[in-house]
């Protein structure tokens, strides 16, 4: 990995982490009124993917989308305004945390219904192919989405039509409180099951930027060459509760040892340790962090100052209206 890539990946991870920790810290104030699913612990995959994609490549995501949106180049101020329910938000403050969209940077949208954005992403890929574009489509989803019919219809179609789709499964082993062992047959490896459908697959440690870099680099190259979709399974772990700012391991639904293992593999802390040990980055990391902190603090101020959407805006684009 080149030094510039490493710097950019580290900055992405730190920036996403800082934004979300600040959301968590300030959530109690009651100004952010939407359900909010944090990606803390899961920042590495989108942070690395950013190295290989362009604005014209499109991404879609689900409920846990902050990291995906920011790493695709989504505007931080617009994201925070959206979470604060303000008119300057990327969906005019009408969607909240789970409905991020910024078409100017190729973030085609996130939705709250599990697996809902998978067929949308495949449809976009079909359009790209019909228009003979070289772009690819990234579809982010969790292990829970594998239990939805829409996933199978969509991937089948993408395989059949050789569509330029990168299916990215962030497997954090849980759907809310339920571990995989209560949801899928014992010992099933998701990527192996998907291979059986006829899709090229791989799996890797989703917290290790170096391993992710290697896998994503090869996958994106192959998808861009027109050989059809690839499915990547990335093992990772969320640090906090499924939805909201708190830690919930007092509920004992996750084995203590697993938690300890994954906290030690925290993508930010372990990357910084590696960087320092091998003296890989020679820039002043402290200064760089401060610049990011200032940018994020500024964006929070902007969101707080912004106004709520007008009645005209909140009632626009809706199906049901009173007479
Ligand atoms: C179709 C549908 N079923 C159930 C839900 C409720 N729900 C929201 S998030 C979630 C868990 C999804 O788990 P996963 O896809 O693994 O993503 P993670 O939260 O672990 O990132 C569930 C069941 C929903 N939003 N949509
Ligand atoms: Mg999950």
Helicity level: 40-55%
- Assign the structural class, choosing from mainly alpha, mainly beta, alpha/beta, alpha+beta, or little secondary structure: alpha/beta
Name of the CATH homologous superfamily? Thiamin diphosphate (ThDP)-binding fold, Pyr/PP domains
- Tell me which CATH architecture applies here: 3-Layer(aba) Sandwich
Concise overview:
This protein has helices at residues 3-26, 44-49, 66-71, 76-83, 117-130, 149-160, 190-195, 209-224, 256-264, 267-277, 285-305, 311-314; strands at residues 58-61, 107-110, 137-142, 165-171, 174-175, 178-179, 201-205, 230-235. It has 323 residues and is an alpha/beta fold.
Could you please describe the fold and organization of this structure?
This protein has 323 residues and is α/β, with parallel strands linked by helices. The protein has one domain (3-238, 255-311): Rossmann fold (3-Layer(aba) Sandwich), CATH 3.40.50.970. It is built from twelve helices and eight strands. It has a six-stranded parallel beta sheet, sandwiched between helices. It has a two-stranded antiparallel sheet with strand order 5-6. Strand 3 (137-142), helix 6 (149-160) and strand 4 form a beta-alpha-beta unit. Magnesium ion binds at residues 142-144, 172, 174-175.
